[in-house]
Structure formats: structure tokens, C-alpha cells
Amino acid sequence: MSGCHYPTGLPERDRMYQHKVSLVVRYFMIPCNICLILLATSTLGFAVLLFLNNYKPGHFSLAQAPDGCRGMLCGFGALCERDPADPSKGHCMCKKTTCPTVVAPVCGSDSSTYSNECELEKAQCNAQRRIKVVRKGPCGESYTHPELSNTVFLYHTHITSAQRSRVTAA
User: Fold this and answer.
1) pTM, rounded to two decimals
2) What are phi and psi of 126, to 5 degrees?
3) Residue 83 is part of which domain span?
4) From CA 72, how far away is CA 93, in angstroms rounded?
5) Which of 12, 48, 90, 170 has the largest count of CB atoms under 10 Å?
6) Cα–Cα distances in Å, from 127 out to 68, 113, 154?
7) Helices (H) and strands (E) in the chain, counts
8) Where would I find the Kazal-like domain in this sequence (predicted)?
9) How far apart are CA 1 and CA 19, in angstroms?
């Protein structure tokens, strides 16, 4: 035991323990203060080592601008697009859909006749409200909804290139 001086009178068990501690301390006395790391690890657990392993001082990234579309819900086929001038703002935009030129009129729940279901879906997206197909074919001059059999509604047609807008009294 060269280099270790113990006061006399210590029990043998304490001398062996002190010798082991001094060897551990002497072995780990390196510039990174591993003794402090070991002490912290023994009290705080393995998380300290993970933190120190991943810690890279001086590598900070700037906070990113808020995403205007984060958490924004767009309905009826619309998609959120960030404003190019201000990315922190988002707007619901309908997809630019080209509908087929097939004329297969449908009557929408908004009392409008659409040239086909695709046109109805585009109108639904633009209005951002539900428009259902009430029946195949044009809405007609008057229409009685099955659930409201005692009520007569007057409808006008629009969005068809084949027909002009009109309102007819019942």
C-alpha cells in the first residue's frame, strides 16, 4: 500500500474501504470530473449519463415560425395551405378539380341542380357546408322532401350550363 497513509487505530474494515475509495478517486481524476458524474449517476440514475452523452453545448437551433396549418381542420375536401407572405397563417383551400363534362344532373340539399356529382362536391367545398344529393335528376320546379311530405318548397336551379336560372311559383 504505497502512497496511502492511514491514521492508526482505524478498524481493518474501514481501512480497506478507504483504500478502495482513494483508488477509485485517483483513477477517475481526469479533466472531465467523472467523479461528479458518477456521484450524480448514483443518486439520480442513468438519466444523467444519457443527458451528458447527448449534451452538445453551443448547438442551438432557432425557434421555427409557428405553422399556420397546425391543428387547423378543413372540411369537405379542402386542404390547409400556408400563406406565402406569413407562414403563421393558414387558409382552407379547395382542390382545383376539373369535373367531367358529362351531364348527369343531381338535385342538392341546398335546392340547387348540379350538372353532376363532382360539381356538387366542388360547391360543397366552396361553401364549406354539407350538400347532399337529394335525388338524381334536376330539382324541378317544386319538390316535396320525403320527410316533409306536407311542405312544398320552391327551388331554383343553377351551376348548370345547360339550364338558365329560374324560379317558378307553385
Assistant:
1) 0.44
2) -65, -40
3) 61-96
4) 12
5) 90
6) 21, 15, 21
7) 4, 7
8) 93-141
9) 9
Q: How many residues does the chain have?
A: 170
The per-residue pLDDT for range 138-161, each reduced to its tens digit, is: 998 555 555 555 444 444 444 433
The more confident residue out of 99 and 14 is: 99
Distance CA 131, CA 66 (A): 34
Give the per-residue SS3 of 23-58.
Answer: HHHHHHCCCCCHHHHHHHHHHHCCHHHHHHHHCCCC
Q: Which residue has the cell 324560379?
A: 167
All three cell numbers of 10: 482505524
Residue 67 lies in a domain: yes
Provide the residue type at 59 as one letter. H
Q: Per the domain annotation, does 5 fall within a domain?
A: no
CATH code for the domain of 136:
3.30.60.30
Cα angle 123, 129, 131 (rounded to 5 degrees) comes to 60
The Cα–Cα gap between 140 and 154 comes to: 9
